[in-house]
Specification:
Elements (H helix, E strand, L loop, with lengths): L1 H12 L6 H12 L4 H10 L3 H33 L20 H15 L3 E2 L5 E3 H4 L26 E3 L4 H10 L4 E10 L11 E11 L4 H16 L5 E8 L2 E10 L16 E10 L1 H6 L8 E8 H9 L12 H4 L7
The structure holds 3,4-dihydroxyphenylalanine.
C-alpha cells in the first residue's frame, strides 16, 4: 500500500492544474466521495498495526500534496480571472495624427487662393527637354542659365534635363490649349546649386499664366495684389520693381512690405523692409509665337514664386534644409494644421 501511496504523491507533484476544469476534476479524482483518498483511508483500516504509522504518515503526505496542488491552482485561476496583467487605469498610448508637410500647406493655400480667382491647376513633367525648359521660353542659346552650373542635364542625352523652373508648364499648356488660358502650376524644380541655409538643389515653385485678349499689366498687378492680401493679410502692400526674364517683357519682381520691426532674421529683407516674393511680367510675344498663339490677337501675363521662401517666412524657419530632413521634431509642429 505504501508503494501505491508514493506513486500517487509523485503523480500529484508532477500535475499542473492550468484550468478551473482541470482543478475540479483533480479534486473529484482525489478528494471526492468515491475518490482515491477515501478509498485509501478505507483500506487503511484493515492495515496491520505495525504498518499503520508509516502508511498513515504517507497518506497524510498525499492529502497535503493534493490540497497544496488545489490551493496553487486557485491562485493561478484567481489571478487569471483578473484578466491580462494590463493596468486599465494607466493613460493610453496616443495615436499621433499625421501632419501635412509645411511645403504642402503653403502650396495648397496658394493654389486655393488662385483657384478662387478662376485659375485651373496644370501639371508638367519634372524631366524636360530643352525646348520646354529653355528654347520656347526665349532663352538665347548662350544664356548663362543653360550653363552646367545651374542645370542637371541627363547624362545620356543633354537635350533633356530636370526642369529648372515650372515655367516649362506655361509652354506645355499654351501648346495644347486655346486662349483664354488661366492656370496655376505648382511643382518641384531642380538646380545644380550648392546647398546652404538659403538654397537647395531641389525646391518648389508655383507658376501662373493668364492669356486672353487685351490682358494688361494692370490686370497682373491687381491679381498679384489680391493674392498678396489673401495670403499675407488684407493690409499687405506690394511693389513691383523692374527686372529681367527672357520670357516676359516688361518683367518685374514683386515685393511685399514686411516692415523692419519684423526683421527677426536680418537676411529676410536685408534691412529694406521689403520681402521679395516672385518674378512676373507680360508674356513675351516671341514666347506666344513659339507656342502657336498669335501675339497680335492675344496677350498675357505670367508669374512664378518659390514655395520654400514663402514657407520660411510664414513659419519663421531659418534653414531651408529643415524641409527635406524629415525630422519628426520639426514635422510635428505642423500637426493639426488644415
Ligand atoms: N521662372 C522664374 C524662375 O525660376 C520665375 C518667373 C519669373 C516665372 C517671371 C514667371 C515670370 O512666370 O513671369 O526664377
Amino acid at each position: 500500500m505504501l508503494e501505491i501511496i508514493e506513486k500517487h504523491i509523485a503523480t500529484v507533484a508532477s500535475t499542473t492544474l492550468d484550468s478551473p476544469e482541470a482543478a475540479e476534476n483533480f479534486r473529484i479524482h482525489y478528494l471526492g466521495k468515491k475518490g482515491i483518498l477515501q478509498a485509501l483511508f478505507a483500506d487503511f483500516k484493515s492495515i496491520p498495526g505495525d504498518q499503520k504509522r508509516a502508511v498513515g504518515q504517507s497518506l497524510n503526505e498525499l492529502k497535503t500534496a493534493v490540497e497544496a496542488a488545489l490551493a496553487g491552482a486557485q491562485t493561478v485561476s484567481s489571478s487569471k480571472k483578473k484578466g491580462p496583467t494590463e493596468d486599465y487605469s494607466r493613460p493610453g498610448y496616443a495615436t499621433l495624427p499625421g501632419a501635412h508637410h509645411p511645403i504642402s500647406l503653403v502650396r495648397n493655400e496658394i493654389v486655393s487662393i488662385f483657384e478662387r480667382m478662376g485659375f485651373a491647376v496644370a501639371q508638367g513633367p519634372e524631366m524636360e527637354d530643352d525646348w520646354h525648359n529653355f528654347s520656347a521660353l526665349n532663352f538665347p542659346p548662350e544664356h548663362p542659365a543653360r550653363d552646367m552650373q545651374d542645370t542637371f542635364f541627363l547624362a545620356k542625352d543633354p537635350d533633356w534635363a530636370l526642369r529648372t523652373h515650372t515655367s516649362s508648364v506655361q509652354v506645355r499648356t499654351m501648346e495644347t490649349q486655346k486662349p483664354p488660358i488661366r492656370i496655376i502650376a505648382p511643382g518641384r524644380v531642380f538646380r545644380n546649386e550648392a546647398i546652404s541655409s538659403r538654397s537647395h538643389c531641389v525646391f518648389h515653385q508655383v507658376e501662373g499664366l493668364y492669356i486672353d485678349k487685351n490682358v494688361s499689366f494692370a490686370d497682373l498687378k491687381q491679381t498679384l495684389l489680391a493674392f498678396a492680401q489673401a495670403f499675407f493679410g488684407e493690409k499687405t502692400e506690394i511693389r513691383l520693381r523692374p527686372s529681367y526674364f527672357p520670357f516676359t517683357e516688361p518683367s518685374a519682381e514683386m515685393d511685399i512690405w514686411w516692415g523692419l520691426e519684423n526683421e527677426v532674421d536680418y537676411r529676410m529683407t536685408k534691412g529694406t523692409g521689403w520681402l521679395e516674393i516672385m518674378g512676373c511680367g507680360m508674356v513675351d510675344p516671341a514666347v506666344l509665337e513659339s507656342c502657336g498663339i498669335d501675339p497680335n490677337e492675344y496677350s498675357g501675363y505670367a508669374f512664378g514664386m518659390g514655395i520654400e521662401r514663402i514657407a520660411m517666412q510664414r513659419f519663421q524657419i531659418p534653414d531651408i534644409r529643415a524641409f527635406y530632413e524629415n525630422d519628426l521634431r520639426f514635422l510635428r509642429n505642423f500637426q493639426g494644421a488644415p
